[in-house]
């Protein structure tokens, strides 16, 4: 009887051990099938809170957020700290801005900013002390205003369904006329923000996000970047398969310009897939429309589980991202650092992570940098701390934009603020 018991215990132990190693190998295989080669992508913000962040090169420390007395309310009623490289300071330029989103500089360095709740605001810093003393409402009762661009004294604003132009706007926020320039943009479902920028070619570029998480769109303008002429007439689609490319920017080159963009990947297939993307969407003179894969693919040509029959298409007929970033970080803003911000960071891609909404362990809520020459294309922390050491989120970065003087400005739609970041020149 004793021998039978021993044999039975041995058998059960062997079965449990085999099950363990099978499950472990199965998880690795599942990750490989998902396109991440069995390697879990690390959340650099969680690492930072644990003291092991993949921060930008050089010293990196926690610093007090400088807040003018008039803005010590709401999120800033208590002391706030952010983690930054040495030689960099951060202050509140303006607060009480509602859901602050995209920004544009005026000729005198004042800032137009959209409030997603329905307003366009002008932040005036007439005395140039680094904080806005006046917040002017330029317009209100708009439909999800997000994109904003100032070009030749005309202010262009992207609402969910249209692009409007405020003609001959001045430094007090007063304009001669308001013109509905582009009408009938896809609206009513899914991603509702419309980013608007004027390119070096004097064309209007507008991103329209997808209507869903994953689906085949009936309107070909969804999940694309559209190009229009300055008179509002349609030109062409210059990038497709871009699920939610809220942030894009132009980079001048010796032969023209490039359009770089960050794209938000789909949800509900895991905490660490799909990667967020930084894409080279368009090069001046390019005739073809590049397709970046959505809804059929993600990452480097991986077919979505809803479309297994598209594997060959994903591998051979779509554009792959130039850089991949932590899944569900929600990159919303992108800009290239100029020489007058920092010689060391000059040319680096600065990207804001708005932060996750349904990841089991939250990620994002920070600003990162990618050094195309020195980091191997890996995103490194640049500013963190909007999610504090207790896991509480008090801010969500949106847009990033450099002023002519080389200061970095960051909007925040949770704290309702715009920050000013200065680097030792």
List the helices and strands and how they pair.
Elements lengths: L1 H32 L10 H6 L10 E5 L16 E5 L2 E8 L4 E6 L5 E5 L3 E6 L9 E6 L8 E4 L2 E5 L4 E5 L9 E6 L11 E5 L5 E5 L15 E5 L5 E7 L6 E7 L2 E8 L12 E8 L6 E2 L5 E2 L3 E2 L7 H6 L6 E3 L5 E6 L12 E5 L12 E5 L9 E4 L13 E6 L5 E5 L4 E7 L2
Parallel strand pairs: 15-19
Antiparallel strand pairs: 1-2, 3-29, 4-5, 5-6, 6-7, 8-9, 9-10, 10-11, 12-13, 13-14, 14-15, 16-17, 17-18, 18-22, 20-21, 23-24, 24-25, 25-26, 27-28, 28-29
Brief overview:
This protein has 425 residues and is mainly beta. It has three helices and 29 strands.
What does this structure look like?
It is a single chain. With 425 residues, this protein is mainly beta. The protein has a single domain, classed as Neuraminidase, CATH 2.120.10.30. The chain is 10% helix and 36% strand. It is built from three helices and 29 strands. A five-stranded mixed β-sheet has the order 12-13-14-15-19, with no helix packed on it. Strand 14 and strand 15 form a beta hairpin. The longest helix is centred in the N-terminal third of the chain and has 32 residues. The protein is globular and about 60 Å long. The N terminus is likely disordered.
């Amino acid at each position: 009887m004793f021998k039978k018991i021993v044999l039975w215990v041995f058998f059960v132990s062997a079965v449990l051990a085999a099950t363990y190693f099978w499950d472990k190998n199965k998880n690795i295989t599942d990750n490989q099938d998902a396109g991440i080669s069995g390697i879990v992508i690390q959340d650099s913000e969680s690492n930072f809170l644990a003291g092991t962040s993949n921060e930008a090169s050089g010293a990196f420390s926690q610093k007090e957020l400088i807040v003018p007395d008039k803005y010590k309310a709401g999120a800033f009623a208590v002391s706030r700290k952010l983690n930054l490289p040495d030689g960099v300071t951060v202050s509140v330029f303006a607060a009480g801005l509602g859901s602050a989103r995209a920004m544009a500089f005026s000729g005198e360095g004042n800032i137009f900013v959209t409030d997603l709740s329905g307003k366009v605001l002008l932040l005036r810093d007439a005395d140039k002390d680094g904080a806005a003393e006046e917040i002017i409402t330029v317009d209100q009762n708009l439909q999800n205003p997000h994109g904003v661009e100032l070009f030749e004294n005309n202010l262009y604003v992207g609402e969910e369904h249209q692009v409007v132009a405020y003609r001959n706007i001045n430094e007090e926020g007063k304009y001669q006329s308001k013109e509905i320039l582009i009408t009938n943009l896809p609206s009513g479902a899914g991603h509702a923000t419309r980013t608007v920028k004027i390119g070096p070619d004097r064309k209007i570029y507008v991103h329209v996000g997808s209507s869903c998480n994953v689906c085949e769109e009936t309107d070909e303008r969804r999940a694309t970047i559209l190009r229009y002429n300055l008179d509002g007439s349609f030109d062409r689609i210059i990038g497709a398969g871009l699920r939610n490319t809220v942030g894009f920017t132009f980079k001048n080159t010796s032969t023209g310009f490039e359009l770089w963009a960050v794209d938000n990947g789909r949800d509900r297939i895991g905490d660490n897939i799909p990667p967020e993307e930084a894409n080279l969407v368009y090069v001046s003179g390019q005739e073809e429309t590049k397709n970046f894969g959505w809804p059929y693919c993600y990452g480097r040509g991986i077919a979505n589980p809803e479309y297994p029959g598209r594997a060959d298409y994903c591998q051979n007929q779509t554009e792959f991202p130039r850089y991949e970033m932590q899944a569900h970080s929600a990159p919303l803003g992108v800009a290239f650092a100029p020489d007058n911000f920092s010689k060391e960071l000059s040319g680096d891609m600065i990207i804001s992570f708005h932060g996750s909404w349904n990841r089991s362990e939250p990620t994002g809520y920070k600003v990162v940098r990618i050094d195309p020459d020195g980091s191997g294309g890996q995103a490194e922390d640049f500013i963190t701390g909007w999610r504090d050491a207790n896991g509480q989120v008090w801010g969500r970065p949106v847009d990033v934009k450099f002023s002519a003087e080389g200061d970095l400005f960051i909007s925040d739609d949770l704290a309702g603020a715009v920050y000013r970041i200065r680097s030792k020149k």
